[in-house]
Design a protein that fits this description.
The complex is a heterodimer of chains A (288) and B (130). Chain A has 10 helices and 7 strands. With 288 residues, chain A is an alpha+beta fold. Chain A has 2 domains: 143 residues, no CATH class; 107 residues, no CATH class. In chain A, helix 6 packs across helix 8 and helix 7 packs across helix 8. Chain A is globular. Chain B is an alpha+beta fold and 130 residues long. Chain B has a single domain, classed as 2-Layer Sandwich (Beta-Lactamase). Chain B has 3 helices and 5 strands, in the order αββαβββα. Chain B has a 5-stranded antiparallel beta sheet with strand order 2-1-5-4-3, with helices on both faces. In chain B, strand 1 and strand 2 form a beta hairpin. Chain B is globular, with a radius of gyration of 14 Å. Classes of the chains: A alpha+beta (288), B alpha+beta (130).
């Protein structure tokens, strides 16, 4: 007779199929749900909760918007001297969409919104997240939208998670960082975007906190903070500064591209004047 | 394609002799915004990731040298192809702290006039800013 109680046995069986035992936890289930909504051409909202709360908005089977309580939202975007941290821009929150496009013009404007949506989605698709019932009638009330195919978004999210895994040895979005306390700081040249981070960096600041302050992507800000760590301008308290870590560069976008995707892309990418997607559907890659 | 509108901006690049691949990449995150590929073009995600890595390293080099210079473009020569990378816009102080976008164009080395291609890329990037 088995010494395992019936209840424990049920739990054991459930554990073997629970998403927590899958490669990417509950994120796999959310990805599957997003694919199904895309296949059905759905319009509505999928609430997601986990480390933070958020939602993914669909229109005609495409993701048009996503937001997370742990990432910045469009419209909170300081400009001019405020963007550099040199003045306070208390009124910028009400000026969404009024900020003149800078270098790159409309392209940069499109990218900013896209980046915030992808950033939110990457945050929502984490191991701990779960989704609630899809609400077909609920569309985004107002604000900018950008229709994007689900498969390409999922491929991008997967790539970002891989980059985050690389960076985790040095810095994460929630690592406290501080200005290099050295009395003899290294000579370095920084971009305006990096200067904006340095100007706001204080004891205990995290890349996520900085991103929320300036209305930028948490993922992009974490990478920018990593670059400032490499330049020796920021340090993670308790960790050796750049140059003393002994290992090579942690960040490699190339290493984050799955090998199988490269092969598939060579065979199936858009050809001869047509447009190519940024990534192949994971589902097709697996041979479905 | 994440940004279909950006794909339209790449159309002029296909007129470069020996064109194989054109990509717009967010340098700060490595996100491929759009890509246009010829029949013999390399895989966009891989080529774009490599280009972003190269620019990342050069940006770090420039940051440590601190000479006040800016990166204008990168030309890489392989045995059969040219990889040309050019930032679409720079961030003048006080203007924008937004992400910097890279244009990557890969061409067939045996069919491309490098000087002409270089000029085409410069004009193309100038057009993006308009």
């Amino acid at each position: 007779m088995s010494q395992v109680s019936g209840r424990s046995r049920v739990r054991q069986l459930a554990d073997s199929v629970w998403p927590g035992r899958t490669v990417n936890g509950y994120a796999n289930l959310i990805a599957a749900r997003l694919r199904k909504l895309a296949d059905e051409g759905s319009t509505g909202m999928l609430p997601v909760s986990g480390r933070g709360d958020g939602a993914v908005f669909f229109r005609g089977g495409r993701v048009v918007y996503a937001e997370s309580s742990r990432t910045a939202r469009p419209g909170l975007h300081p400009s001019g001297l405020a963007a550099l941290g040199l003045t306070h821009d208390e009124g910028h929150a009400g000026e969404a969409g009024l900020v003149a496009p800078g270098p790159g013009g409309a392209l940069a404007g499109m990218l900013e919104l896209t980046e915030l949506i992808v950033d939110a989605l990457a945050d929502l698709l984490c191991r701990e997240s779960r989704y609630a019932k899809f609400r077909p009638a609920q569309v985004r009330p107002a604000g900018p939208e950008r229709p994007m195919p689900v498969e390409e978004l999922l491929a991008e999210v997967q790539r970002r998670h891989e980059v985050q895994r690389q960076l985790a040895a040095v810095v994460t979005a929630d690592s406290a960082v501080t200005l290099n306390p050295s009395l003899d700081p290294p000579l370095a040249q920084v971009s305006p975007a990096q200067w904006a981070l340095l100007a706001r960096a204080a004891d205990g600041t995290t890349p996520r906190g900085l991103a929320l302050q300036i209305g930028r992507s948490v993922f992009g800000t974490t990478i920018e903070v990593y670059r400032l760590l490499e330049l020796g301008l920021l340090v993670v308290p308790g960790r050796p500064p750049a140059g003393h870590r002994g290992s090579g560069t942690a960040l490699s976008f190339l290493r984050a591209v799955p090998a199988e995707r490269r092969d598939d892309d060579e065979g199936e990418g858009a050809r001869a004047g047509s447009e190519s997607g940024a990534g192949l559907p994971a589902r097709r890659r697996r041979g479905k | 394609m994440i940004l279909p509108e950006a794909g339209d901006l790449l159309t002029p690049a296909t007129a470069i002799d020996g064109f194989r691949l054109g990509c717009l990449i967010d340098a700060s995150t490595g996100l491929v915004l759009a890509a246009v590929q010829a029949a013999d073009g390399p895989a966009p995600p891989t080529a774009a990731a490599g280009a972003a890595d190269v620019v990342n390293v050069l940006t770090l080099l420039n940051g440590k040298l601190a000479t006040g210079e800016i990166l204008e473009d990168v030309m890489i020569t392989f045995s059969d192809s040219f990889f040309m990378v050019r930032p679409v816009g720079h961030d003048p102080v006080g203007q924008n702290t937004g992400p910097r976008i890279l244009l990557l164009v890969v061409t067939d080395r045996h069919r491309t006039n490098l000087a002409m291609a270089h000029r085409s890329l410069r004009d193309l990037c100038a057009g993006f800013l308009a």
